[in-house]
Specification:
CATH architecture of the largest domain: 3-Layer(aba) Sandwich
Number of helices: 9
Order of helices and strands: EHEEEEEHEHEEEEHEHHEEEHEHEHEEE
Strand content: 25-35%
CATH topology of the largest domain: Aminopeptidase
Structural class: alpha/beta
CATH class of the largest domain: Alpha Beta
CATH superfamily of the largest domain: Gcn5-related N-acetyltransferase (GNAT)
Largest sheet: 7 strands, mixed
Bound molecules: zinc ion
Shape: elongated
Amino acid sequence: MAKLYFRYGAMGSSKTANAIMVQYNYQERGQNALMLKPRLDNRDGDRTVGSRSGLNAPCRYVEELDDIDLTACDCVIVDEAQFLTKAQVQRLVDIVDNQGIPVICYGLRADFQGNLFEGSHWLMAWADSIEEIKTVCWCGRKAIMNARVANGAVVKSGEQIVLGGNESYVALCRKHWSRGELAPMEIRRISSGKETYLPLLLEADPSREMIDKYLDRGELYALMVNGRTAAVAVVLRRDDGAWELMNLAVAPDMRGRGYGGRMLRHLFKVLSARCDRLYVGTSEGNVPFYEHFGFVKDHAIKEYFTEHYDVPIIEDGRVLKDRIDLVKAL
Ligand SMILES: [Zn+2]
């Protein structure tokens, strides 16, 4: 017998990735799983569901259900189901009970204030099967709350849904959510909204044009201190299989506290599983910093900074000319 499933979890618990995997598994067996989401949520562009890990899949909107022929459909999957209205959940119940098609909904349980979303409320009330997808708080306890973070602080007031806002969301355990305590320090890989970090990236590389060449293809990491971005780094895989550190920037008022070094050690750990050396191209003035972390000089590119940048880059009162490339064995 077909069932209505509600699989809920906090931010970052891989709900969308799970939804995409379930759809893939149906396809593998030669069956059809229809992917839906409420139209309200348009963060991922038009008719796409996208996960933080970078997986994405095409979808239709729940609002379009009347135009979709479900006769050849073996399963309906709904992402971002917290945004469903009561009437839409009722419609999903009808699909299960009257058309015999299982419906699997993925969504958040509660909003940033700890209140149930409308969709979650009715799914909790009516689903045949309720399952939790677990994730952890920075303290190691299970994260069940979704904190809204703006300017490095947890905010507790505002609209339930803010579309296109600059806020981000962090999954916390109930204790740290109610105290508003974000991780003292953590390094996160950033897969979406990379342009938010441009002001800091421009500190290390003043050319937007150069940053555009590697930001999309590269992996961006952010070191957060009490919810604020203290340092960012971008690494890019080169054609020869080695990786290159394209950008490493520390917020001007947070320099001299070892954050650059922490970021480097994190990159060494992450990349050592994938390659045996990391390159960096930098100015003469930064060479001692990299040598301190085990990089050795490889070669120099004469007049690199004067030829690749429209305006002269001044560092310690001198115009930068040559680029020094260093390499570190991982
Ligand atoms: Zn916690």
